Amino acid sequence: MLKRAYTFAAALTLSVCAGLAHAAYPERPITVISPFPAGGATDVLTRILAERMGRALDQTLIVENKAGAGTTIGAGYVSRAKPDGYTLLMATNSTLVTNRYLYKSLPYDPDGFAPIGMVGIGPLILLASNKNDYKSTADVVQDAKARPGKLTFATFGPGTSSHLAGELFKQEAGIDVLHVPYKGATMALPAVINGDVDLFFDMVATGMPQVEAGKLKVFGITSKSRLSTLPDLPTMAEQGYPAFDLSAWFSFVAPPGTSPEVLETLQKALVTTLEDPQVREKMLSLGIEPRSGTAQELTQQIKNEQPVIEKLVDQAGLERQ
Question: What is the tens place of the pLDDT at every residue in 44-60?
């Protein structure tokens, strides 16, 4: 009887200790991997969210940039990280949807990550270099048709939303424009400004300041409806391309095998963050509409978008790299 009592006491102690250990999460700073260079729209968004989530978790969230290869470098790094809740990924539609159709082999499983929640969605804008005399999207299309294969468009990298927007533009307008990939907007923008490339589908946050400074021209937005913060900018659909409806979206995920308890803690912090009026205002100023922060919405977004993106990749004739 005494032995059984000692066994029960020991088990109870272990259970209590385990509960205390879990209750302590997070005990140390959390690293959030941004798979784009510092200064780009995704990076800016990640830092806004990390600061507010840190307050919700009473812990520091450190943003680390691991850019390149259409987000596969950063995604591969997080997929191999210890599933303890201390390494997270800002994942985009490129990471979780598009890359599976563009790469023969990925350093991660797009379906393997543990979902934390959907963060936001934002359209892109069509930018043009001042080196050309274009005054509208129609001028761009007219020149592209007159000089097939001569115009170029910059992107964040292969498989990114800017790449798909460019491919969709080519399809809808019936033009041949050469893809020139860069490692994020911070590297693509100077090339467009200098006239090294002609066009660029960029996020509002990084593209519009260059337009307002007179360094670039803007001709359209890729969403189905106009953006509330840019009411005078017409959609691509309004300009004669009704099938043009493509936006970038953002989410938080964790390494495969992360415990449900840790995911729940992170998800609650994300929801709190996205409900903060100041955070929402900052996101809208970036041209990004805040979403629910739930894992359910993220999972549904991935499911809904897969057939759409697969069809676009096939129609564009993009070969697997």
Answer: 999 999 999 999 999 99
